[in-house]
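Assess this one:

_____
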Amino acid sequence: MKTILVVDDDNLNLATAREVLGGEYKVILVKKGQQALSYLKTGDCDVILLDINMPEMDGFEVMQKIREMDNCRNTPVIFLTGDTDSETESRCFKEGAMDFITKPFVPAVMLSRIGRILEIEDLRRSLSDRLEQKIREISDIKNKSAQDVLTGLWNREYTEEAVNGMLQGGVTGALMMIDMDNFKLINDNFGHIAGDNVLKMFADTMREFASSEDILCRIGGDEFVMFVRGVTSKQELSGRASDIINDICKKIKELKYNTDTSVSIGIAKAPEDGTEFSKLYNAADKALYFVKQNGKNSYHFFSDKLVNDEGKAEKTVDLRYLKDLMNRADNGKGAYLMDFDNFRHVYNFIRRFVERSRRDVQTLLFTLSDIESAKLDASEMEFAMESLERSIYTSLRRSDISTRYSSRQIIVILMDANSVNSDMVAERIIGNFTRTYSGKRVFIDYGIARLDGVESD
């Protein structure tokens, strides 16, 4: 049942309104404007019948105060008046009334006009609800198109636009470029599902250390960006960067991914290092590169990098310091796992080395094949290859090197090994593979060839 609030200082008018409207509506009767306002603070109604001529506060004053109240700003108002002149009628509509009813009341007219107003109001609310729903749907679609599918963070296009908007509005802050060190080894050794889970965990960790006003973004792969709004203090930014690094490394360790995966962060501040996204991004990238070249698993400010570069150029390089610095980048315990392009460069370097040192270096090629008529699909073969990579990584020394040659083949270089040693190593790898691979539907074979040193042209 709809509720109608009737405001009139005349008892006879209130009684008439109750008699006419009580059969179809819930009727609330008050005699003063202040009483109506007090009711509306906690109660609600669908239509307000408001007398114009009242003592203390007339209907027009009450109307103005009603429109200032959030909960009934749009509630339709019908003025009650004994005046029939055009000036009064004009002012009623000017003040925002939906209609007016003249006194004394004619029951049929009163019911008709109230019914029409309620129909219009129902239609307005329905259209308003549908419009809000469509706006939400469009907003959801827009947000989804601007989000990274895997992590739910913003993509680069949205982030660049949002950060530029803040900077143009005079907002200060800092852009952190965050990158995972040795992340590829997680994919190579434990599979892409494990890698995806680490990336989602990475995104959740960023959310833990961000405020609601910060912008979090996945640029691509294992590269992320965080724009820290309003924070330029080196102490505060250093604390946040350190917390992110420590938390991520702790979680990766708990997952038992023994790949020396860590986190490096480059930091650029606005406005000192740039007043637009592209400049901050490039500055943070340079700071990140500095971290990568100096042992990883740390953070660095672009402004500090500039000072550091100037200092380097002004003094003689200490080679012992550089050696210690570069040694810190290698904390691996098993064989080096490399992509094929980098493997080729290392292969040619070793080839030259063998030519001059006459050392024994062997090349092994492992090949996976389907057993008999079994035809493995791509996902099953990928799982078998990942198991083989894990077996190679855990079976070899730190001086050995490995890479994928194809979707079914892996090349291994064994340093200081003869053909007999190489056979033993190959059998150990196959033994580990057989124990760990659960599919049991592939056959593994290998070949061995001595790497001969040949001078490059």
In short: The mean pLDDT is 85.
